[in-house]
Write a structure and sequence with these properties.
mainly beta, disordered N terminus, 22-stranded antiparallel β-barrel
Amino acid sequence: MLCAAPPVLAQYTSQQISGVVRDSSGAVIVGAKVTAVQAGTGLTRVAMTSDSGVYVITNIPIGEYELTVESRGFKRLQRTGITVSVNSKVAADVEMEVGQVTESVTVTSDAVAVETSTGEVGRLVTGEQATKIQLNGRNFAQLLSLLPGVSTTNRSSFDLFGGFGSNMSSQSVNGGRTYTFSWNIDGADNKDNGGGGNNFVNINPDAIAEFKVMTANYSAEYGQNAGAVVNLALKSGTKDFHGTLYEFVRNDSFDAYAFRATTKQKLRFNNFGANLGGPITWPGKFNSDRSKLFFFFGTEFKRLRRGTPQLWNVPVPQQRGGDFSALPAAQQPRDVANNNQPFPGGIVPASRFSRNGKALVDLYPLPNFTGSGGNFNFQPPEPLDADQYIVKGDYYLNSNNQIAVHWLHDDYYSLQQTNNRATYDRLIPGLNTSAKWTYIANPTTVNTFQFTYTGNVIRQTNFQPNPIFGPSYARRDNNITYPMFYGNETSVPSVSISGFNAMNTTPRQWNNFNRIFQWKDDFSKIAGSHNLKFGMLAMRSRKNQDNQPAINGSVNFSPGHALHSGNPLADALLGNFNSYTEASMGREGWFRFTQFEFYGQDNWKVSQRLSLDIGLRWMIMQPQYAALQNAVVFAQRYFDPAKAPQVVASTGLLVPGTGDPVNGLAVGGSQYPEAFKIRFPQYNQDVYQRILRGLPKEISPWENVFGPRLGFAFDVTGRQKTVVRGGWGMFFERIQGNFLFGRVNNPPFIQESQVFAANIENPQGGTTRPAPSSLSSYDIDVKIPTVHNFSLGIQHKLASDMLIDIAYVGSGGWNQYRGVNLNQLMLGTLQRNPGVNVNALRPFRGYGDITHFITGANFNYNSLQAQWRKNFKDGGLLNIAYTWSKSITDSSDYNDAPMYSYNYKLDRSNSNYDRRHIFVFSYIYPLPFWQRQDAWYKLVLGGWQLSGVTTLQSGRPLNIGIQGDRAGTGTGNQRPDLVGEVFSAGTKNADRWFNTAAFANPALGTFGNLGRNAVVGPGTNNWDVSLQKIFRIKERTSLEFRAEFYNAPHHFSYFGVATTVGAANFGQVTSANDPRTLQFGLRFAF
């Protein structure tokens, strides 16, 4: 270990030491005094054994303890090396010898222990694993993949560094959805309920003492979400000062070439930081014995500089000047004003150019590349900076009162839209602040109160012209003068010309302010063999999020309109567009919710060999709602077909002046809110009053649910070597904020004009015949998503330092939220109505697709999970995790679109997270020679340590799709017929992963017979290795050099596969894991 005095934690909520005190004959000893002393701080807790000889010391911080047991007529017993980890219930039975109290016996605890007090499924990741095992991007959340039951959908990649927080969008536990995690830091909530389940604040690995992942049938003490609970413990100060100073570096010159790459992506990465912990003391006046007040400070900085090569198609100078003579005659422009006659010589005269059209074409850069695939090659910079600060304090006022506080702050900076005409800075400061007070009334009564204030802010600022595309994005500087509809933006519009890359300009502010306030209290009472616990949680969330539409305009030059010349670029020069869209202003949403939860839990020591967990959690969930009452939903009950607008059958466009524009739309609330009037005075109050339908403000009702929890642990022999454990629990998931946020984009509040087939010199002269609006809505009667999970397994201690855990773990969920398309056509409708546009046939005429979120999805998961672990005496460990599982669902994510919304059970198949076999071997192994550096040659040649992670796993499911809409339902997302063997001779390689001839387009008006996710993709075979050399400078000071090799053998595990029938690359591998990548590090520790 690098630090002589390992840091500890002041998290008091769940840890305990308990056991039975007996004499040598097996009889229990009543009234024995049991004293537990924490090695790092000297914290002392006392308990007395009950009438059944049982003692419980609860709500203690993690760390290493020494246990002293005293009873008249028996020798004093000391048991050392008792390790208490996060949320652990350590069983420490004691056998005393007859003798005088002045005599003593010392016993050393084993390095591993079975769980004899609880049936929950939870696995520990130690601080040693967090700092010794290499992490690609040093994101601690990757360590979850070391545990059984965790399936990842990502490839091994440096991109896991992410943009902010800990990106969990690619990890599933026990078949659950990826955003159902609960993230806690020293008991403080750290989850963004509207950001895909990410953390508000990321924690650098060097500040982590350890964390525990509870995956199934955990106690009623934990709620809020239905997935895994990650309880992370920060390092803390001890009696001795300890600290580290470190830096890690990467450079693309160290790396191999990526899959199918001929050049290397630019990469410069520096990750440096420091931490310091110890006592706060004033010799002779305060804390002289270093037992009361402790601090820990940590800081880390990341600096990433890289660029992704881009290859675009841009107009060549000859054609920008109107000369298309080099093109085949069929691609040369025709003069619409002259009966569609070809322009002479294929040249559009400059006198016919539209001034604004030519200016839009000139927004494109000139070609600079003559190879294949494009003619403009560039590599925009992609800087990303991250700064983090951690301050923690632990204050032991006296034997009855303990206070712990922490303040965590991180800042993420990135340059966004680097392939856009306007770039901007994205700033994401995150915050997690908590104060906890633990009151120990007596050895059997403890109360802990905690307040948490957490959240983040996302800002987009400092809009600048991208030097790759020009010195300015202002209209006036680029000779763009056409009259706008609303005139609320001075930037050039976004331009799309068929055959070329789009030239986007999005200089629009976007702000997200997210704060969560949380109060919780946990009360523990030991009554005989019952360890009772009761508690409550109250949470208030405030999130303000805006979203800017195309207020600068968006112009599209493409075929399919009356003014089309036959060449989209020529259309642009002439100024004749297919469509032009412009919005009046941005969207703003204020989202709120309140939540209350209560629980009762009894950890009952029924006998010396049997423990029961019995609990109940009561949750009162307020649905997230829009405080401005501008979240619009589509409700079928309010749609009147007689008020639907007329639709042109051939084009699907609406006939102006017909129908009710708010037909079927509704907002919650009973009156026009004052806040809405103030912030949006231009909105029509009469229109607003028409969509006030008497619905509650939250639209969906509050949920009042009860989640029972049951568990048991049975010590088979009574010697704490073999334990049978199991349990069952019911859990509930808050509906994600993203479920609601998009509703503010619905009509009628956003004024957006769209014109077709006009000239850019006067866009308002075109035909203002809007297309039906597509809506994003949700069911006003949604139910709360529910999950139940269960397990039955056995733990066996093979030796004092070796443990094996084998369990069946299953889970199932119902009322999972998902999206369906309310306005999808019935099967074969387009075939039965040839020539009629899909919008003229919609069930709810006047609208396009209506993405409607409901709580109607289900899943089930069954698995065998096994873990073998060996701890070495002088540090280091070996860990093997194996999972054999099957995960089935009809929707893996809330935004999964079904193939057919009238029967989405057709999509019931393997989930996106289904990996049948997952084998992960992780290790920290001090090489067995000259670790004691007491000679010069041992100092030079000894002190080596090897660590790494080997991952072998089955492939992810691949969903084979087809092009277009052969089923005639008006949407895509359809599958082919299976007509042959999927894997035949010559498959499972990069050029042909599967037999492409095995799939065929189905007959028109039908769906294919192939199920969703029916083909198994490439598996993973990845070896990450780290070699460390530790130089012992002094007894408590060391310097560590690290060389980390990601994908050390440079073996590509294929990842992405082209899955669209008929595509040119169908069946080909499109991506793989990262190439061999090196990272070097240096860490000084004392």
